[in-house]
Design a protein that fits this description.
Number of strands: 0
Number of helices: 5
Shape: globular
CATH superfamily: Flavinator of succinate dehydrogenase
Number of domains: 1
CATH architecture: Orthogonal Bundle
CATH topology: DNA polymerase, domain 1
Order of helices and strands: HHHHH
Length: about 90
């Protein structure tokens, strides 16, 4: 039997808070605590894949220093908006 949706979200929240860099912990941790429960299954799967990406790449995508790969465009835009809201 596979992982339940509830357990998957818990796992993703833990992974979001325990990244390789403190900067990504501080971006993805709060985002995951606030936003993951509202994402649909497809978005959760995409977020799971995103967490497999290198922190250096993630940081550059989120801060707009490098172009975002197409499959992550909408997701990263939401994370960036969340992280840098005034």
């Amino acid at each position: 039997m596979g992982e339940t949706a509830e357990n998957k979200v818990k796992r993703l929240k833990m992974r979001s808070w325990h990244r390789g860099t403190k900067e990504m912990d501080m971006v993805l941790g709060p985002y995951s605590d606030t936003e993951l429960d509202a994402l649909n299954d497809k978005q959760i799967d995409l977020y799971d894949a995103l967490l497999s990406e290198d922190d250096h790449d993630l940081y550059q995508w989120i801060t707009g220093q490098r172009p975002i790969p197409g499959e992550y465009n909408e997701l990263i835009a939401g994370i960036s908006k969340f992280a840098f809201k005034s």
